[in-house]
Amino acid sequence: MYYHDKRLQYPVQVSEPDPAFARMLQQAIGGVEGEIRVCMQYFFQAWGNRAPTPKYRDMLLHTATEEIGHIEMLATAVALNLDKAPASLQAEGAADSIVGAVMGGERPRHIIEGLIHKNLLSTGLAAMPVDSDGVPFNMSHIYASGNIAADMYCNVAAESTGRVLATRLYNAARDEGMKKMLHFMIARDTMHQEQWLAVIEELGGAATQLPIPNSFPQEKEDQEHNYDFFVTSLDGSYPEGRWTSGPSIDGRGEFTVFRNEPLGGEPELGAARPDGMAQVEQTDATSV
Amino acid sequence: MYYHDKRLQYPVQVSEPDPAFARMLQQAIGGVEGEIRVCMQYFFQAWGNRAPTPKYRDMLLHTATEEIGHIEMLATAVALNLDKAPASLQAEGAADSIVGAVMGGERPRHIIEGLIHKNLLSTGLAAMPVDSDGVPFNMSHIYASGNIAADMYCNVAAESTGRVLATRLYNAARDEGMKKMLHFMIARDTMHQEQWLAVIEELGGAATQLPIPNSFPQEKEDQEHNYDFFVTSLDGSYPEGRWTSGPSIDGRGEFTVFRNEPLGGEPELGAARPDGMAQVEQTDATSV
Amino acid sequence: MYYHDKRLQYPVQVSEPDPAFARMLQQAIGGVEGEIRVCMQYFFQAWGNRAPTPKYRDMLLHTATEEIGHIEMLATAVALNLDKAPASLQAEGAADSIVGAVMGGERPRHIIEGLIHKNLLSTGLAAMPVDSDGVPFNMSHIYASGNIAADMYCNVAAESTGRVLATRLYNAARDEGMKKMLHFMIARDTMHQEQWLAVIEELGGAATQLPIPNSFPQEKEDQEHNYDFFVTSLDGSYPEGRWTSGPSIDGRGEFTVFRNEPLGGEPELGAARPDGMAQVEQTDATSV
Amino acid sequence: MYYHDKRLQYPVQVSEPDPAFARMLQQAIGGVEGEIRVCMQYFFQAWGNRAPTPKYRDMLLHTATEEIGHIEMLATAVALNLDKAPASLQAEGAADSIVGAVMGGERPRHIIEGLIHKNLLSTGLAAMPVDSDGVPFNMSHIYASGNIAADMYCNVAAESTGRVLATRLYNAARDEGMKKMLHFMIARDTMHQEQWLAVIEELGGAATQLPIPNSFPQEKEDQEHNYDFFVTSLDGSYPEGRWTSGPSIDGRGEFTVFRNEPLGGEPELGAARPDGMAQVEQTDATSV
Amino acid sequence: MYYHDKRLQYPVQVSEPDPAFARMLQQAIGGVEGEIRVCMQYFFQAWGNRAPTPKYRDMLLHTATEEIGHIEMLATAVALNLDKAPASLQAEGAADSIVGAVMGGERPRHIIEGLIHKNLLSTGLAAMPVDSDGVPFNMSHIYASGNIAADMYCNVAAESTGRVLATRLYNAARDEGMKKMLHFMIARDTMHQEQWLAVIEELGGAATQLPIPNSFPQEKEDQEHNYDFFVTSLDGSYPEGRWTSGPSIDGRGEFTVFRNEPLGGEPELGAARPDGMAQVEQTDATSV
Amino acid sequence: MYYHDKRLQYPVQVSEPDPAFARMLQQAIGGVEGEIRVCMQYFFQAWGNRAPTPKYRDMLLHTATEEIGHIEMLATAVALNLDKAPASLQAEGAADSIVGAVMGGERPRHIIEGLIHKNLLSTGLAAMPVDSDGVPFNMSHIYASGNIAADMYCNVAAESTGRVLATRLYNAARDEGMKKMLHFMIARDTMHQEQWLAVIEELGGAATQLPIPNSFPQEKEDQEHNYDFFVTSLDGSYPEGRWTSGPSIDGRGEFTVFRNEPLGGEPELGAARPDGMAQVEQTDATSV
How high is the ipTM of this complex? Predict the structure, then answer.
């Protein structure tokens, strides 16, 4: 179970509110590379973890719990950027409506409105669990396969796309407070990339963990084609690289090249059943 | 651009159609671990690839094109499993409706109907781009970040969850034809896991590729916390592992442990603006 | 604006409630071929119709309004099928829970539960705007292009898939009351297919309406390839048909066959910008 | 920021694992009436709360944090119900595959498979953030309007539908451990219904809080129709009730009845623009 | 069943078309606080209503039918705002494309395009069932629980967020015609808030209706914790209010405060099954 | 199975990159009228095709394969439009971040950012499988009914809305390269509209193909109402047209007009079951 402290994990300060940047930050909340995703992914991996020891369940809970605090920081940052001014100065905003209030002097009203549509209309200028285009986060992005190695790579993928996003936001930020918040979150993403790869390494690295799942006997897979790079170009050309020759990454095979060709025949589903509500012409071989 | 051959990449044969297994196969078509996902992910990564040489664009096109053939094989397998019998024998199915026709003798009609609802009603017993619960595939699962290392880990993640799924389907399969098709697809997943990790290795491995993106100067991130395992347990306990001490995976830091605590203060958004359509009580400091 | 009458457009009677059939009927409510779709599609086409006369707006309103009554009939049918018995007999259902109550004597409890999960848990045994797999209807399926001919074909498509679905449900139905309700709805689908094609005919048929939109001057399109069947097979083979030779349907061209080949070159996006948070290796032509 | 304790808020024990019940429990995790919803709704309401005092922000954080623990309990319950047996006995399950393993002796394999499709194939038998039909939770269900009274009613709605669901699950449960867990969660839903209504009462109840938002001057709304029950029946009949006469709930008006009729004219959008890619016939008044 | 009148429920006039405002109005059509939602919610509640008398079914039908007319008014308003000018003046729009046509003189073309993307490209400048960010309405937002009290609170929540939205739109509107239309719709939202609360009152108010469902015997819920405010702050602090002491809203209990602590133990799912396609290391207690 | 050629089907050139136009092109990739849709629709129709001969399966494969190349062209066009300049000139862009780089001199930074949010943050300036509002393509739009005539009309609908979209994009394009690419794609849409209608004609046209499915015996449908135009206006007025009198399109009936009226009674679902967790008042006929 869980506890909270009212204070934030790290300071979130905004000197000059910027509604357009608020919308960009939404990608880090409700985007597929965002913090709701990693938070929920680590929780569901932890809660469903089956293993001889609770070690990985425990580790996942630490990081999942940390991530709630990251969503909180970003949500605070969005609200502050949608605000005209720091709290104590709000009263002096002379605008006659919330719509007018979010514009700086030089920006045309209808433009800013357009950039923050849903945050403006649905929340009274606060964060939402949506991405920078206003698309709600969909929980199908929570990958938790029950296989610890597959999950660790899913987590590396999440933290890699997450850190790429965070650095793009850092580059786009103008406000020092925002840069500072992001420089902390980028550091945490660095650690989390490391952390999930450390699990793979602790378990033995590629040599023992690949192919994932390592519990499926490799004799049962097609041993003729399991280390082949398949070429589908019309003229048979292909780019040479680490994946076309030499030992495989897991050390169990040798990379080779195979020019793809049909090993199967043309599929035949045959005529439609008379009772299947196809057209009559689909059911009778003589009529077409 | 693209070409096709009417024949399948690998034989797809079904001796005893099994509608329940057809529905399970749907997960490998339209599930988030499925083949539409990897096919489209590799295509969008290829089409958006920016690099000094077209090498990775090319490689991605080979594998993306291969994957169309995998969707095709699975779609064929679903249709055959939804079929009562091979085409030439269909006429003797005595059922008076398509609904009756998909049941084996020993299976109650309404059960099978329930298991394959949408395939039964919407397609005339063919495959759909949905998962095993009938949920349509959503293209937000196509990860293509523009960062080659992030994308490669996304692909490893995709092929790892994909091979876990394929082996579970293999275990669930009874039909020899289905086992054979899957033993081929499992082998291809093995290669694809290897292939994406080979790119990381070719580029220099963790030492040069981490943290992702490696184009963001690490001086700009919070160097105090970028190799810290953050502990959020109430009592400060944590699981020791490769991630709590020793050199980091990228060789640039040392793992340490940090007991999480609020470094920021309590956020203050202040009273709501009078024009924001909050309740009056939210806008006036004296009234609450 | 709109009015209602408490009575149904057509009688809906269920002698033997069948929860499994209730779930199948959900496809006709919230499936992509269902009645919510056509109802909302015709409304949005009407409300957005721009034309010299209000004629088509008016016609669309008649049919859209009719369709509300179809959703109502189906929703009533679902509720009745989820019911153990007619209202007056309910009290004697001896089951100790709603879950027990929906099972007939011969059917295992957990099976029926599984078939109607969400209707059981979320509605107290009533209809929902979801399909037969429990997937909620998504309003992106409302096609209203602002082009009357495009919209009419969208409507023919909707009524064609709708009638295919309705006839499959008819075949699956056992209850006479359900067959009767469906025999009425199937007839309405017949008329609606005719009705939308009648508009095309009234406007002049293929000769004047194709290609859609007919307001785009055909000189501006690539006149070399606008009546070509493109062949993409590796060996150049293709199926001959009405579409490979002879006059085109709109009478403005002659069908011909073109063997597809790359008319464009290889796309070059070049190296990634240094500031785009790609990997360093993507930005420097000398390093890869 | 947040902390965790590895232990659960309340005991979760399962004597006889029941995969079908596991799927029903999914509705309480990822259904629109489920715990992810309330958890995230209270968090986003707290994080975006604007008010003279932090009181309601604080209160919301307590309950949001409590709700994470509820998701955790339910996720644990799903995993245990998908399990054949307590951990120590697992080895003796003689099944040759995970698919076989989840069946009790008397249940046909393909039925159980069908009921738990995605949990079986995607997670290795654990909980997912999906509902009982396998539909992923969509974050658009997080209602946080920035208006405290509107939000409190959203929360009452959430806890009302939530408790209805929990009691249906209680009725469907056979296992004593599951009944016990649910009897705790039902009690918490009771409190939460009370808690949100207590806020309305503390703020002054209907007399000061309605209509919501109370910051919009009622003079600006149409005072002729703001307490009218509109009748749309063809014959003008309507059901009498508390809403057709007597003082309004907020004490500011008197309920009356108004027979609905068109107060506006027929809308005229006119002909389509020549450049809008409608059909030619839509643009020229003389041609239709 | 249903009837229509071509005229609108209330006048919809636009003097100066404003494409940016058109997009904001979309939130009131296809947003989660919008009119499609309430219309369909009341219909599904009506069609599934089970009660000794048809009274509430009837009442719901009146208001659901009214709401179709509201969607119609808003759709008309969107189309008029996307139009350059009143119908009779359209011909003189000198723009060479629909894209140019929607811009006023002072507005840069690409900005307006960006604000109304999908309405511009998909509809020929008409309304769509999407929100102000272009996200299609998802029918999972139709709450109809089968419990009249839960449904009434869902309706109050819908009309509260709906009226908050409508007043924000009113504040953002510049055109007098739009203000007039909204002042009518705001008034109707006032009535609808009242109407649903009137049902709760007619049924006996909180004293008899809470906790919802009131048909679940409260003896079966955990009576130790059903009126406790749970405190999750690390230091045990909490905000005092109406919910921490005094009689509960339903008059059946006394509010108290409970400091949350784990009443359950650490969950143990144990090692993964050998056949579950976890990694080998997850299945063998001796290897990790 | 499938092959590729690195070159494009048709040249894609951009002289002056325009980020706003890039976003509009997204509608043609991931919009419901876009190329992913037709590509996948034709594939699933082909893969599930049941007929006496493989003719239509074959034809569909040719066109589906062609469409992959169309997505590729559009994805290339999006990437080029998001680019500041041709590859060789990129280095001289003086902007200090990718965000700055996509602005032309005269355009305010935050505006352009707002128009291309997700492409900017998630992809490093490449195409995504989303529409022009950033909404991901949802695979429920793949219509493949198993009925060849229904499918052909679905395809005509797809190509009609697709060509309407393409011509709107053509009108909005300023760059000659973009106009050229689109003039090719518009031509292909012309052919594809023809092609699917040619199938209907080859099968016999309306006379044999309607009503769809033509395998359902028309005697089983309600012959009283299958060619009636139903009038729902309050005053009985209706627009006369090809659909109100004269022979039906299929030649099997005569169009007539029927004034809609309730043929069914008022539905009675009766009181709620005591065990259904409705309110007590819903279960007892004497209490309300």
Answer: 0.92
